[in-house]
């Protein structure tokens, strides 16, 4: 892939939280890139570091958290080298973010119009009147009925779905090149979820922006993403285009995630689960972080952390099975053998 | 909003009636015979009886209360026993002094309290934060008559003599009493603002503002403070209401002729029409301040529903 065709390239990003006892490595050497105009899904369980990754890109990590290393190259500039005021010009303007909780993400004491206008006033220096006019157009764009009336409303007067549309209107007000959506539909009803996802997809085409979609929902990924990074315990374990990921997942964790989805096409006695728990960031396993839960784990897995290696098709996986050093069954096929391996 | 205001007005009516009943009953609850007190120790039984007739104390209690209410409606609070002047005139001349004192003290508390609270919250767990909170605790724990005396000692008496020792009227006169009365309020407001800010600053909408590219100062003073002030407004209102009736000690220390001293002097002289009138005025003002606080609370916090 040409470097210039990526809107953002994250290299070896490391973000830690410093408590009195220890350094908690929430994001531990994450690398990925987002091709221009495409959608990258970052998938993982709670605590895998996906939200921290997105806040790191925005440089919005609060104390006691800190970005301790790596590079975030956005349009060939490293965001980690930018000053706070340079970052402010990027936030909400070139890179925007929407959050999981539409109910609490809008300021209760300002009107919807004020909150959208603020983006225009900060980044484009518009007058109050011009900014409100632009905000009105934005509300129309995100499909809010009777937008003129809604401009003067306060957040508590809107439903969750409407609030998330307002959040999208704020985020897209200045036509950003990159939108980071952190679980944008998790808190919404299923019917509203689909509407919001469709809205993001349509606006992405219309505005030609790239999207990083953080989610734990593989269904959402299948519907909306072009590429997927699967995160586990602060690291990316697999990176693939969406079709490959669903058709031939490589990493045992990805396979586990996929097989834990309920299916309607086959008769299932019970839902598959991945046994065990995500390791605590203060007490990471020495070797592969998934090894304690992995049905294929060998001594090598328990002792040494595998690297994220390129595969022939350009995708990446962090698993010893695909390396020359693999010391287990040489004939193993993670996807096909997962079911039998877990039940044994 | 209009409906809300009307409802609040309706809700104050029973409170006002309660206040008038209590104030009215004061005459009958205090020890001694009011007619005897007004007529004087040396009065004969006939004179006392005459006074009782004049005051209408022989009528049924309800009749007396009705008359009392009627008088209040006409702003007639009776006449002072000592001076014979109308009570409303006596109160009127003192009221503005106390009002000014309470008003400027509250203003000082708000100004210092909010700034100190915000600084403390934004620099939390630093030396500055700890210092501000220690000073606030000190200000809160200090009895204000003692603070007043100390201020006089150091700033009004030689060698400094920056401010007059007593009296009221010019800005110089106001400085020390206002500091005396405003310190405790500033401390309370600082502590309230700090805790309220710390709560608000972790809210999701603050992150949204930052993600929008808003400057940190604007995040603090516009997005966070506006929300953090909602509970503070209540404290400020109560503070002001309390000060209106609570300036007695400060007025005494600085020899200020305000309502507080009027009440004390009148109690000592058993001049109960004045005591009644002053208590009534202060109580009604307190009701009014609370009403205004509720309105502003509603104005600041859009989420309060009309129920």
Automatic annotation (TrEMBL), chain A:
Principal subcellular localisation of the protein: membrane
InterPro entries, per database record: AAA+_ATPase, ABC_Ni/Peptide_Import, ABC_transporter-like_ATP-bd, ABC_transporter-like_CS, Oligopep_ABC_C, P-loop_NTPase
GO cellular component terms attached to this protein's record: plasma membrane
A Gene Ontology molecular function term of the record: ATP hydrolysis activity
Domain of life, per lineage: Bacteria
Subcellular location(s) per record: Cell membrane
Family, per entry: Belongs to the ABC transporter superfamily.
PANTHER family from the UniProt entry: DIPEPTIDE TRANSPORT ATP-BINDING PROTEIN DPPD, OLIGOPEPTIDE TRANSPORT ATP-BINDING PROTEIN APPD
Protein name, per record: Peptide/nickel transport system ATP-binding protein
TrEMBL record, chain B:
Ranges of residues in domain ABC transmembrane type-1: 95-293
Main location: membrane
Pfam families linked to this entry: BPD_transp_1 (PF00528), BPD_transp_1_N (PF19300)
InterPro entries: BPD_transp_1_N (IPR045621), MetI-like (IPR000515), MetI-like_sf (IPR035906), Opp2B (IPR050045)
Keywords: Cell membrane, Ion transport, Membrane, Nickel, Nickel transport, Transmembrane, Transmembrane helix, Transport
Compartment(s) of residence: Cell membrane
Origin superkingdom: Bacteria
Parts of the chain that traverse the membrane: 12-30, 95-119, 131-154, 174-193, 228-254, 274-293
Molecular function via GO: nickel cation transmembrane transporter activity
CDD domains hit by this protein: TM_PBP2
Cellular component annotations (GO), alphabetically ordered: plasma membrane
Membrane-topology descriptor: Multi-pass membrane protein
Gene3D superfamilies documented for this protein: MetI-like (1.10.3720.10)
UniProt xrefs under PROSITE patterns: ABC_TM1
NCBIfam families xrefs: Opp2B
Record note on quaternary structure: The complex is composed of two ATP-binding proteins (NikD and NikE), two transmembrane proteins (NikB and NikC) and a solute-binding protein (NikA).
Entry's family note: Belongs to the binding-protein-dependent transport system permease family. OppBC subfamily.
Protein name: Nickel import system permease protein NikB
Species of the source: Texcoconibacillus texcoconensis
